[in-house]
Amino acid sequence: xxxxxxxxxxxxxxxxxxxxxxxxxxxxxxxxxxxxxxxxxxxxxxxxxxxxxxxxxxxxxxxxxxxxxxxxxxxxxxxxxxxxxxxxxxxxxxxxxxxxxxxxxxxxxxxxxxxxxxxxxxxxxxxxxxxxxxxxxxxxxxxxxxxxxxxxxxxxxxxxxxxxxxxxxxxxxxxxxxxxxxxxxxxxxxxxxxxxxxxxxxxxxxxxxxxxxxxxxxxxxxxxxxxxxxxxxxxxxxxxxxxxxxxxxxxxxxxxxxxxxxxxxxxxxxxxxxxxxxxxxxxxxxxxxxxxxxxxxxxxxxxxxx
Length: 306
Ligand SMILES: [Zn+2]
Description:
binds zinc ion, Rossmann fold, 4-stranded parallel sheet, globular, 306 residues, alpha/beta, single chain, 11 helices
């Protein structure tokens, strides 16, 4: 009798792996520790890694990606991490210092912008060639879902490198997520397609990849880079541009002061909306897909309602 019970239990234990989803981890197994610079990268890693990864992000989404200063705890996070995921292109200028101070030789750095064709920032470089030079390209690559797909592939490769046992699991999740990104992109492109007013003014140059993918046109930026202020002459030029191009909406961002966008919008008599380049700053935009949907829908609503 005892033997029979033992046999039943043994065969249940033996057969159990067959009924579990492939290579997802249970609560007790150690997870791959991943640190990301931006919260949007945390979402990408979680979509692919799910139960096999434990992800922390250094920026919460409320700080500007250009003026972030690492906290004391960031060094500890990088010291303990197995993988660090960044955008690159000089956006996170502080990452190299963080890596040097963390003294973690086993750390794998994934630079997700690698291989993405860049939009150049001619205007900015003429004005101030020494500042904000992101190795010759605009670093806000993630706001185009096509670029996000490339970034997700690099993340998947990195996770597999550090955790080969999860390969099948990561690839399966990648396939599903790439399909979701594709579906979102096509659906939103369809929604924008027949809009009459697609020209926008944005607060800082975060939006060229986003605008190009969805068919919007950025006529101008209020500031050429975060930390600078527009002159009265530049504001006047923007006001004229709004009239000339029949622009109906100005875009502010939750990470920056909305004082000047507000003044400009009320002077020009156009709508002011807040869009975020980072996940987590506006309620309901914690994932990349929900963020892009929110940003596109807010523009559609603003130019239709006006
Ligand atoms: Zn930016």
